[in-house]
Amino acid sequence: MKVITIERKVLEKNDALARKNRDLLLGHKIFTINLVSSPGSGKTTLIERTLEKIRDSVHIAVIEGDVQTDLDARRVSAYGVPTIQLLTNGGCHLEASLVSDALAEIDLDDVELLIIENVGNLVCPANYDLGENEKVVVLSVTEGDDKPLKYPAMFHQASALVVNKIDLVPYLQCNMDALVRNALAINPRLRVFRLSSTTGRGIEAWTSWLTATVDRCRKEIPV
Amino acid sequence: MKVITIERKVLEKNDALARKNRDLLLGHKIFTINLVSSPGSGKTTLIERTLEKIRDSVHIAVIEGDVQTDLDARRVSAYGVPTIQLLTNGGCHLEASLVSDALAEIDLDDVELLIIENVGNLVCPANYDLGENEKVVVLSVTEGDDKPLKYPAMFHQASALVVNKIDLVPYLQCNMDALVRNALAINPRLRVFRLSSTTGRGIEAWTSWLTATVDRCRKEIPV
Fold first, then answer.
1. What are the φ and ψ backbone dihedral angles of B84, each rounded to 5 degrees?
2. How far apart are CA A134 and CA A33, in angstroms?
3. Do B147 and A40 touch (CB under 8 A)?
4. What are the Cα distances from residue B217, in Å, to B29, B33, B111?
5. Tell me, what's the ipTM?
6. Whole-angstrom distance, CA of residue A96 vs CA of residue A154
7. Which 8-state DSSP code applies to residue B141?
8. pLDDT in single tens digits along all 223 residues of chain B
9. I want to staple A138 with a disulfide (CB 3.0 to 4.6 A). Which of A37, B167, B187, B214 is the partner?
10. A152 and B CB contact within 8 Å
11. CB-CB under 8 Å, A123 with B67
């Protein structure tokens, strides 16, 4: 007996569309990251700092995913990069079909790095491939060091972890080493960046990695 | 033509079970709150401070909802109150059926206040009535003052807002007045508490309200 649940059918359809997105993006040698986190972990501020640092050397486009409002897209587009706002109208995660619609609005020949900011939600976006190269999970130290254990799926799916707001550690009971240890216990392959998007501390390692990976992608070296 | 989507059928079934939970709880004159927030906003710490303050005067039981792990339930049960752990195993919100299972495990004759801590998720739990009297949304100032606008459904559904971690305001770019203004723009009826579960500042107004409301509930005065 074969059981196909509705959930599984939805995911299969999404995966097929994600593969199409991935083929399209790789065909244009674009490196794509899918930024995921809880609400308020600092995804948009991280994008702003990234744009400040490398938009002159790397051609970047941004897709902003939100439940409602275009507040984030307005912040990002102020940096003069192509920005597409996707609204889920109550939906708790982006899907490959929405991203496909957004890609149709971008001149892909002029993009080297695509940043997709997902809806703020540490649960649902884990299961939805958008066609990205890497899922990057952002976790603010203010959320507590136990979060990788409590929401393991997202950390399991991601290939990189940005530990954000490290400037606030002195005022918190959060143990940053325990946080990273917990994340690596879920996924030992996680590439870890510790930074503050507010003060800029640690941002250099992040942008250096992005720049180098974009370069590898353009030379068709597996990233 | 009548269109019934699967989503709507799921919600209708949940609502029916929620009504049963509500009838059961009100029959026992129990005041029930459903605590919702992003991951790491401080729901569990708020419960711990609440227990410290009023567990001697109010009979409290706690239902802990988590995707995985019993970390929170262990923290709460250390305070010697009846604590039930609900695991959604990847699910992004609690449902009335899970809460119904938990209620069967609690001696309701000995409870005056039931605190349900939902899964950390600012999107999905908004639509799922559990049978509570009030949905209380917790928002940490570290998440930023724009969050009520970006995730309006939860603020619309809630009847109270706890602005948490106010001890961190001096180190943030968050404007707490703007945060409250944005929340009230979505829902002018929100009762607002500003507090720090870490330092205890502002916790008195919260526990006084809880105690008074539990008292009204026991006297069958509408809360």
1. -115, 130
2. 5
3. yes
4. 6, 12, 12
5. 0.90
6. 17
7. G
8. 555 566 678 889 999 999 999 999 999 999 999 999 999 999 999 999 999 999 999 999 999 999 999 999 999 999 999 999 999 999 999 999 999 999 999 999 999 999 999 999 999 999 999 999 999 999 999 999 999 999 999 999 999 999 999 999 999 999 999 999 999 999 999 999 999 999 999 999 999 999 999 999 999 877 6
9. A37
10. yes
11. yes
Two structure tokens written together for B211 = 């105690």
Judging contacts by C-beta atoms under 8 Å, the chain A residues touching residue B67 are: 123, 150-153
The overall pTM is greater than 0.90: yes
**Separation in Å, CA of B211 to nearest CA in chain A:** 29
The residue type found at A73 is A
Instruction: Report chain A residues whose CB lies below 8 A from the CB of B150.
Output: 39, 66-69, 71-72, 120
Say yes or no: A140 contacts chain B, CB-CB below 8 A: yes
CB contact under 8 A, B40 and A119: no
Residues of B in contact with A39 (CB under 8 A): 38, 122, 143, 147, 150-151
Tokens of A50: 């990234």
B171 touches chain A (CB under 8 A): yes
Choose among B49, B43, B38: nearest CA to B63: B43
B142 touches chain A (CB under 8 A): yes
The neighbouring-strand residues paired with A192 are: A161
Phi and psi of B137, rounded to 5°? -95, 130
